[in-house]
Each structure stands twice: as C-alpha cells, then as structure tokens.
Predict the structure.
Amino acid sequence: MKTTCILILFWLLYMLLLSEESQTSKTEVKCNFTEKNYSSIPADINQDVTILDLSYNQITLSIRDTSDLQRYLLLTELYLIENNVVILYNNSFGNLFNLKILNICRNSIHIILQDAFSGLNKLEQLYLCQNKILQLNPDTFVPLKNLKLLNLQGNLISYFDVPQLFHLELITLYGNPWNCSCGLLNLQNWLNTSNVTLENENITMCNYPDILKCYSIKTVPYKAECYSKLSSPIIEDLYINFQSISNLTFNSSLNNFTRNSEHEPLGKSWVFLVGVVVTVVITSLVIFFAIKCPIWYTFLRSYNHHPLEEHEAETYEADFTGYPSSLSQISDANSEETTVIFEQLHSFVVDDDGFIEDKYIDSHELHEEN
C-alpha cells in the first residue's frame, strides 16, 4: 500500500513538471524588429515577449529607451546587435530579472557605468564584442552572479582587473591592445588557475611592450619583480591615459543624466608650461631693448650725479680760469689745435654768477644765496 502511494505521488509530481514545461514552451513569445531603422524602442511590442531582437537599427539605448525596456518582465533574450549604443547607463536593464542572454555587439560603446547591469541576476551570456570600450570597472560585473560567458573581443581594452567571485566558463579577449606589463599579471593568474576557457588563446596576443608582442597574454613570462609587488594599472600606457581623458569628458557631460558620475582633477602641467614660455619671452625682450636702446645707460648714469659743494665749485673755477693764460703762450703753428682745446674747455667755464650749472642744484638754495 505504501509503495502504491509513493508511486502515485511520484507520478503526480512528474505530470506537474511536464505541464509546467509545456506551459513555458507555449508562453515563449518571439518578436523580431531587425532592420526597421528604429531610432528608439518601438511601442508595439507584445508585453509577454520573451525573445526580442532589435538588431540592425539606429537605437541609442537612451534613458528613455531603458525605461521602456522595464515593461518586458518576461524577457529572457535581448539582441541589440549593430545599433548606435554609446553609453550603458545605470540600471539600463533593471527590471529584466529573467534575462539570460544579452548581446550588444557591434555598437559604439565606450562608457559602461558601474551599475549598468544591476538586476541581471540570471544573466548567463553577455556579448560586448566589437565596441570601443577602453576599460572596465570590475565592480560592473558584481551583480552577474550566474554569468558563464563573456565576450569582449575587438575593443580597446589594454588592462582588465578580474572581479572577485568571477566564475566564468568561457571568455573571449582577442582583438584588444593588451598591455602585458606587470599590471596584467592578475589576469594571467586567473586565466591559469581558474576553470575558465580563453577562446582563441593563440591569437590573444600582447600589444605592448614590443618585446612581448609574440606572446599570448596567458603565457607571457613575467619577471620576479612583478610577483614581489602588487600589480597596478600601467599609467604610462597610451590607452590608459586616453581612457582617463575620455572619462573626464564624459563625466562633465553626464551631470544632467546621473548623480553617480565621478570627476577627475585636472593636472597643472600646462600652468608650468605657460609660466616657462612667459618667462622666456620677457627675458628675450629685456635683452633686446638693453642692446638696441643704449640710451638706458645714460639715464642710469644720470642718477649718479649730485649737487656740487661750494668749495668744489671754487676749485673748479680756479682751475679752469687758469687755462686761458696758458693757452696764450702756444705758438701760431698750433693755433688750430689751440682753438679746439679752447672750445672743449669753454664748455666747462663757469657762468658769471660763480656757480657751475648743474640741474641738480636746488633752485630754492640758489635763490636764498642770491
């Protein structure tokens, strides 16, 4: 009797599972809107859609589009291949709790905000191939607890810090300009110690430095110094620097859309450069005017003059008045030379008032003496 009851119970349970599977298969709804030249999410989509294909359109996945997507709660697959998506905003797929496959390949994505994939707890496959992604924040993948496949092929990623609790089965990384300096050591360790499979490992090559271009990112040999210190992103890498500038530009333009954007301080190297240029120009002008305008020396020398004292004036008067008597004794043969000397000395002869003309003599003192 007990055996019969157990068999009946198992039979009922089996029939119940079959009915649920059949009901699930019957409720699967596919909507294909490919190559319709849509610029936004169309409004005539069945609310019960489970597989939605919007590939080969002009959709930007703006904030309005993301809010429209929240209505399709039963969606399990979403395809946005070859659209005009540039930014993945926070909570872009917030209410799509049942989504398992998300394909956004062949767009122009270069910014993915940290909470872009928030709410996708059941997502298993994520395709971000052939975009313009420069760098990925590892915290972006934290909500994707069931992610098994990640495709990042054909982007501009040079460094990738593997997030914690990342349990992928397949990852695609080829077609990126990988910087195989010490900063990529953590990624290599994860690829070699986890159960993940690196697709097309033989063509997932280093792009920098030149000496390591012939190595795969999974087999590149690292020096002992890379193991003795914590690995960090390579700041001198061209792509990392470009990413910082790109993020700064994006953050300044995204203030009207999100409160989570971060601002980076501007460097002051340009201030130093401007100061050097101005200093060189001013120094050059000073040297030029000093050479081309010697009249400056005259003005500088004039400041060394000082009013003559009374005993100095009498001495100069006595000295200069004695010259005419000596000049009268010079022969006629040297008359021309005498004339020149007399004219030169005549300029120093004092006036009738007994004072040497000097522009620095105080006019008030002169008036009192008169």
Remarks:
- The chain has two domains: 27-266, 305-369.
